[in-house]
Amino acid sequence: MLIPFWQELLISTLVLLVPMYLYFRSSGRSKNPGALPINWPVMHMFPSLLANVHNLLDYFTLVLAGSGLNFRAHGPGGAGMRFFVTCDPANIRHIFTKNYTNFPKGTEFAAIFDIMGDSLFNVDGPLALRPRAKIHTVLSSPRLVASMEASCRDKVVSDLLPLLSHMANTGTVFDIQELMSRFMFDLASTALFGEDPGLLSIDMPHMDVSIAMDTVMEVGFFRHMMPACCWKAMRWLNIGPERKLGAAHTILRDFIAKMIERRNINKGHVNSDHEQEGVDIFSSYINDPDFSDYDFLRAGLIGLMLALRDTVRTTLSWIFYNLAQNPDVVSTIRNELTPIALRKASTAVGDMVIFEPEEIKSMVYLRATLYETLRLYPPAPLERKTVATDDIMPSGHKVHSGDTIFVSIYSMGRMEGVWGKDCLNYNPHRWLLEDGKLRYVPSHKFLSFNSGPRICPGKDIAVMQMKIVVATIVWNFDVEVTEGQSIRPKSSCILQMKNGLTVKLKKR
Ligand code: HEM
Q1: Which domains are delineated in the chain?
Q2: Pocket test for ligand 1, best of 100, 409, 450, 494 (most atoms within 8 A of CB)
Q3: What is the pLDDT of residues 440-466, one digit of tens each?
């Protein structure tokens, strides 16, 4: 029987790669600190990248530290694997701001995240203009912002605090990363469609859509690291991670379609009494002719669901991990909260103090703590760009049309040359000036919210949500991280913890 071309290609690639991979793992050669990837015949640096793929962010960090913030890597000829990896702020400014039209995300990025179709998250240039202007208008509407603040605050009071109190009262050890995923899934869905699916509940309902979203990010990472022909062959054969991704796409598309349908049924009611119009994000898209194409609209909503849920829940988990290692930071946050908490003692819900969005807006140290977490643990740790035409970076490196650029945001936070000798220390004070005000740091150095024209339009909303959650938990509970856990990032486009983060709470 004749083997199809794709199967043949896949089998020969695996035959070449598996022995090299095993060799690297057993010999430990890949752990040679700071060394550039080994340039093998035929496969070039691909085996080194593959051998470190389980720990890619730390591997990039070591190599970047040893190579002056930039290095090149390339895989087998014809596989489209010519990489320039950087965490150099001058280069980042060039890529994201000064000459950004020369560095689109590119067609490969859009193929990797095909679930987001031609929506904003996958396109550049003229195609991005209208969707970008639209989402900026939507997210800056005072009505929407007020509604998102209120729903976050209400969710904390009605669901999060009772659940956490239950965990504390029963001495239950639980995974706070999963809890934050549930919390943010509900909040993202409420912001988008005005409907809370109720994943954050004491019964811990099944979270298949949330898991499908994780799969998109995990298989997306795998796709970034493989020659495109390999993962496309696997998709065609419907095997391995691609099979899992296909199922995840179906679950996610069905969920969004169901939410659109339900919201459309309620449309008449909403428009007739004007009570809710414009309060959730979807209402701003309902009658917009630019978004009348169903697939385009659904793809954009999937992108927004990911943007809203993934970033904040990931950051929240890392915050609690960092706070557990740094009790002095916890004390300083509590000191900052004390004047508000004392004023509120009489209005506390039960024995819990609730912080209102307005009250914590000006809390500088709390914001510094969030930024310090985002510096070391950026939820989107790698940015991918393509080179449109040959260019020279401020560092002097030449890049060529068709090259892929990986910007390691994760590594940038860990570079002495960028953040100083104490770059690895968790120190929110680095964000404060002597007069106690917040220090300005340009976005090409603090890239967690992106930089240039494509900077994140949800930054203020995200900061507000995280402040409400962190202030409320830190004030009302002591969070104790279970000892002996192995805390490391998952291989994913989102910096989730591989094994979650188990904690125990005590009421204060
Ligand atoms: C900790 C929280 C957050 C972080 C660290 C973050 C970070 C980012 C980053 C790195 C990008 C660029 C992604 C890319 O290059 O494809 C981005 C884009 C975006 N973010 Fe956020 N984000 C956060 C929260 C949010 C929230 C809560 C919203 C919505 C309310 C939001 C809405 C968006 C949108 C619409 C874009 C696309 C902008 C464009 O392509 O022009 N983000 N964000």
Answers
A1: 87-507 (1.10.630.10)
A2: 450
A3: 999 999 999 999 999 999 999 999 999
